[in-house]
Amino acid sequence: MANIRDLARMAGVSVSTVSRVLNNHPYVSEEKRTAVLQAIEKSSYHKNINAVNLSRGKTMLMGVVVPYSDHPYFSLMIKGIAKLALDHNYKLVLIQTDYREDRELEALEMLREKQIDSLIICSRTCSMDIVREYAGYGHIVLCENNNDEAVSVTYVNHYRAFYRALTYLYQNGHVKIGYCIGRKTGVNSLQRQAAYRDFVSKYNLGFNEDYIIGDCLYFEDGEKVVNKLREMASPPTALLVTSDQVAAGIVTCCQKLDIAIPGELAIIGFDNQPIAKMMDITTVKIPIEEMGSNLFLQAFNGDKSRKEMQVRLIERGTV
Amino acid sequence: MANIRDLARMAGVSVSTVSRVLNNHPYVSEEKRTAVLQAIEKSSYHKNINAVNLSRGKTMLMGVVVPYSDHPYFSLMIKGIAKLALDHNYKLVLIQTDYREDRELEALEMLREKQIDSLIICSRTCSMDIVREYAGYGHIVLCENNNDEAVSVTYVNHYRAFYRALTYLYQNGHVKIGYCIGRKTGVNSLQRQAAYRDFVSKYNLGFNEDYIIGDCLYFEDGEKVVNKLREMASPPTALLVTSDQVAAGIVTCCQKLDIAIPGELAIIGFDNQPIAKMMDITTVKIPIEEMGSNLFLQAFNGDKSRKEMQVRLIERGTV
Questions:
Q1: β-pair partners for A314
Q2: What's the predicted TM-score (pTM) here?
Q3: Which of A175, B100, B233, B307 has its CA at a distance of 20 to 30 angstroms from the CA of residue A121?
């Protein structure tokens, strides 16, 4: 369906002129008004889009499920999705779940109710059994390494990325290594935990539950992490921190407490957000915005596909 | 209209059970299936929501216009809107404009096309003439100090907040004061500029165009600001920085260059984001999330209202 920009292009006038004509605004030259009305005629521009949607079974709306819309990782992913959505005249319906299954189910229900054409789940909570049941109603795209044929996926091999980063710390002389993560469940987190278990057993470092610190999402969580380390009899000398925000919080907190980095504590962040560059934090670069764009294209095109995004370690001053 | 959570509550079963029944999943006890079907019967739960919307003229969708969805200020505002949207069974349609008028007009068009019930414009680009033309199609809520009777507004008195912060810097001995801002146009920015002009003329400090630095939005822009100051023959000794992110970027950059804060450069940020607390940055606290929640309620309730949010200076170590 033509949108206001298409009409402006067809009529050779500005979008605000189209808007004035659509709203029967008096101050429009007869010539321009006629041009716009002809464009509307040509493009069969409708007044009630729900009628259009009902007739053509399309809403031009795409659902996007995120646990937290204000987390830099997800807001950057949304940015990548939003950019392409705009190019393709799609609008995004944002569903913030806080990782609650019922909220994610509401998003899936929107697909079944044809309120959206497709659904991107940036971080999944529902079981694949449930997701699969909804795949028939519209395209579902996940951001995880998942082989289910019912969905398309864009993912990072978190097992390999984590294992490499751990090995890098080991090569730098660390044998007491821990990691900070958002939630401990979830496909990506479980792949990271598997990499950690395989790593410590390969080098006989011993598995220490205390070295895995959960609920690390925001800058301010860095302080919590540092306090936990200080309570440990034998704290880790190095940390993988799955968010640059949290890594930055840890570095800032250590500076205040005169804890030497990397001397007393080595840090590897994830994402390569601007704050990591500014604060000279060694990090694993993840192309979050590009992942968002690819998620959109998979949801838009609809043919099932799997896309692995490449990551790389960026060596800076915190190891 | 009942949603999946309502059905679960009515039937006294879990949301996933409701989902299984809706999808004719085999593994559901006859008893539970009957309970869910009765709930669906009672609540007249429809299969195609577009048909429902067409019949009742409601979409349960609310539009949210933001220039950048990944900016911490707007993503926190979206969080505040999203929280209440969920409580009221509303979904949000996110429209990212990059401050382009045609994109904002598309959002307004969605209102006219009844694709959304109401529209929140977190930062406006279109003229009020245009906004007013669309106010008849649904509630429009703005986040600016605006007396237009066609819309509801939630706002901060940026003139007063800016004037107070400038006075605070003056009382601390600064006479060469500049400020960093996102875009120089826009209601909020113009009110801040007015406060700045009135302030410098009251204290005969002289108006210096170079002291107003635009396009300051993200952490990484802090470096750009510091480089600009270093090029000036007579740089300001104090800056108001309208985003804590940028303020944090400036502080981080100054630490790297051994520029003493507040000795050589005093900084006042805005928002009171967690990073400001962690980095001990003096800032003007703005209740962004609460503003988002109030924007939602105004769009939801629909009766025209004006709500001023209170701000306050938080004294820390950068002045």
A1: A283
A2: 0.81
A3: B100
